[in-house]
Each structure stands twice: as structure tokens, then as C-alpha cells.
Design brief:
Largest sheet: 7 strands, mixed
Strand order of the largest sheet: 10-9-8-11-12-14-13
Shape: globular
Radius of gyration: 20 Å
Family: Belongs to the methyltransferase superfamily. PrmA family.
Order of helices and strands: EHEHEHEHEEEHEHEHEEHHEHEE
Oligomer: single chain
Structural class: alpha/beta
Pfam families: PrmA
Function: Methylates ribosomal protein L11.
Enzyme class: transferase
Helix content: 25-40%
Bound molecules: S-adenosylmethionine
Keywords: Cytoplasm, Methyltransferase, S-adenosyl-L-methionine, Transferase
Number of domains: 2
């Protein structure tokens, strides 16, 4: 008999996307898709204006599906009112055949423009770049970092604004998305490190697919030699604070440190954790519940 999937569709307030997506990934063990991340319709401005978003998750129909759907409905009913939806609709379920799932899942991903020049494009999508566009090909679903998460987007925007004429260090490289963007934006030398060897393997494949050269390693941060004009770290707030001295030591005089992965409510915790480093907080950018801090080292 053909294998089938249960496609579960949730209509939720836009500001609740991250919360629900995390819950769904945990519950289903699969990735999720979010509508309206298309190139033409998505921008940070329109995201705030769009009141409702569609999030889809994919479950294998098994004995636990009913239970999981009930847990999902409870989660939505409990949390959506805090985001302004007093009467959230329960999720709907459609059964998909394996072959429809394989193509149906893909249809929810489209090329996404981030900042002015960067475009993240799924490998299967045709795309005609504008002059000056820097296109990164990336398939969702392997390592963290497909450009759809606000913490990644905030880093990419910061990186594009800074320009990357010198050397760049990407701490917690995941899919390698930030490392690849740094190369495309003109960095001379890019080093990406991750504690997860699988992520490094994926990042290497992605770099090869995009024809970019970066040094991708599992070397612990403290053991990476040299200093860099830009250091990026999109990891958890607690890790950023724990690694504050090592991250700072890697920033060249006058260079920049971009910190992401910080919930807005944890922003002051991270800022406090970097006070003793001597770096200057140059800019704070936010998207939804996520915050990104840009620090600069003295000359
Ligand atoms: C949120 S993902 C970021 C991926 C990508 N850089 C992006 O911006 O989308 C965080 C990554 O950091 C890695 N990581 C966590 N702690 C780390 C550490 N102490 N040193 C290096 N990598 C770390 C994780 O394995 C994961 O791949």
C-alpha cells in the first residue's frame, strides 16, 4: 500500500510563528513550511502587517496521530490569545500520498530575498537574478540555517550592511549559510566552525554546491588561530555569554562581532555578559521576538 502523510495546517497570528514552528518540529519530528515567505511578498515590513500566517507540518499517520493533534490544538488554544487571536481555529488535516507530499512540501519554499542583494534559493526553484544579486542555493531540512529563521536573517542583514572586505569567522556555522554569504559578499578568507560534525559535513556540501571556498572545521573556538574583521555567532544566549571572552579574542582591532540567537527578553542578559569585554555595542536590530547585537572592538 502507498505510504501516506498527514498534512496538518494551522492558521495562526504572524507573531506566533517561531513558537508554533518549534513546537511542531518537536511534535512531528519533521520540518515545517510557512506560507508567504516568497520573494515578492516577504519583507520584514510586510511580515508585521500580515496578521495571519499558514504553518504546515507533516506527520506519519500512526496510532499516536490523534493524540498529537489534540496536543497541538491545546497548544494553539492556549497560546494564540496572547498573540491577539481570541478564537483560534483548530488545525485541519489532509491526507497526502508519499509522492504528493514530496512535491507538496517543496512548493511552500520559494527564493527569499534577504537584505538588498542576498537571495536564498531552494535548488529546485528556477530564479532569474537581478544584476548584482548574490544567490545562495540551499535546500531546507538538513542543518539549521535555511534563511527562513529570523536569527539567520538578522545576521545576514548585519553582514551585508557591514560589508566583509576582510576575514570572517562564523561560529556555529550550521548549514554554512552565513559563511557562504560572507564569501559571496567579498570576504577574503572565511572560517566556519561547529561542534556538530554532521553540520560541518552539510556546510561543506553546501559550499561545494555553491562553488564557494570556506574553511569548515569542528575546531573549538578557543583553538582557532588568528583574528577576524567580522566574527558571527548565531547560538543560544547562554552560550554567547559563556563564550564572551573567546569570541572577543577573535575580533581584530576595529573589527565587528555579530551576536544572534537572542530572545528579546534575554537581550540585557547578553549585553551584561559582554560589558567586561571592552567591546562597544554599536547597534541592536530585532525581528519579532529575536534580537541581534552588533559590537565593535576598539582600534
Ligand atoms: C542556530 S544554529 C545557526 C546556524 C547558522 N549559523 C545560521 O545562522 O542559520 C547554531 C549552530 O551552532 C552550533 N553550536 C552550538 N554551540 C556551539 C559552540 N559552542 N561552538 C560551535 N558551534 C556551536 C550548533 O551545532 C548549530 O549548528
Amino acid at each position: 500500500m502507498d505510504k501516506t502523510w498527514a498534512e496538518v495546517t494551522c492558521e495562526i497570528p504572524a507573531a506566533m510563528i517561531d513558537l508554533l514552528a518549534d513546537f511542531l518540529v518537536e511534535l512531528s519530528g519533521n520540518g515545517v513550511s510557512i506560507d508567504n515567505l516568497e520573494l515578492d511578498t516577504f519583507s520584514l515590513d510586510t511580515m508585521d502587517e500580515a496578521p495571519v500566517k499558514t504553518v504546515r507540518a507533516y506527520f506519519t499517520p500512526d496510532d499516536e496521530l490523534e493524540e498529537k493533534l489534540a496536543a497541538l490544538n491545546r497548544f494553539i488554544q492556549e497560546h494564540a490569545p496572547a498573540y491577539g487571536d481570541a478564537a483560534p481555529a483548530p488545525p485541519t488535516v489532509t491526507t497526502l500520498r508519499e509522492e504528493d507530499w514530496a512535491t507538496g512540501w517543496r512548493q511552500h519554499f520559494a527564493p527569499t530575498r534577504i537584505g538588498r542583494k542576498l537571495v536564498i534559493k531552494p535548488t529546485w526553484e528556477p530564479f532569474s537574478p537581478e544584476p548584482g544579486d548574490l544567490v545562495i542555493e540551499l535546500d531546507p531540512g538538513m542543518a539549521f540555517g535555511t534563511g527562513t529563521h529570523p536569527t539567520t536573517r538578522l545576521c545576514l542583514e548585519a553582514l551585508e550592511k557591514l560589508g566583509t572586505a576582510g576575514d570572517v569567522l562564523d561560529v556555529g556555522t550550521g548549514s554554512g549559510i552565513l559563511a557562504m554569504a560572507a564569501v559571496k559578499l567579498g570576504a577574503q578568507r572565511v572560517v566556519g566552525t561547529d561542534i556538530d560534525p554532521d553540520a560541518v559535513a552539510v556546510a561543506r556540501e553546501n559550499c561545494a554546491m555553491n562553488g564557494v571556498t570556506a574553511e569548515l572545521v569542528t575546531t573549538p573556538l578557543a583553538d582557532i588561530p588568528g583574528q577576524f574583521s567580522v566574527v558571527l555567532a548565531n547560538i543560544l544566549a547562554e552560550d554567547l555569554v559563556r563564550m564572551a571572552a573567546d569570541l572577543t579574542a577573535k575580533v581584530a582591532p576595529g573589527g565587528f562581532l555579530i551576536l544572534s540567537g537572542i530572545l528579546v527578553e534575554r537581550e540585557s542578559y547578553v549585553i551584561d555578559g559582554f560589558v567586561s569585554t571592552g567591546l562597544t555595542l554599536a547597534e541592536t536590530t530585532r525581528e519579532g521576538e529575536w534580537s541581534c547585537l552588533l559590537y565593535q572592538a576598539g582600534q
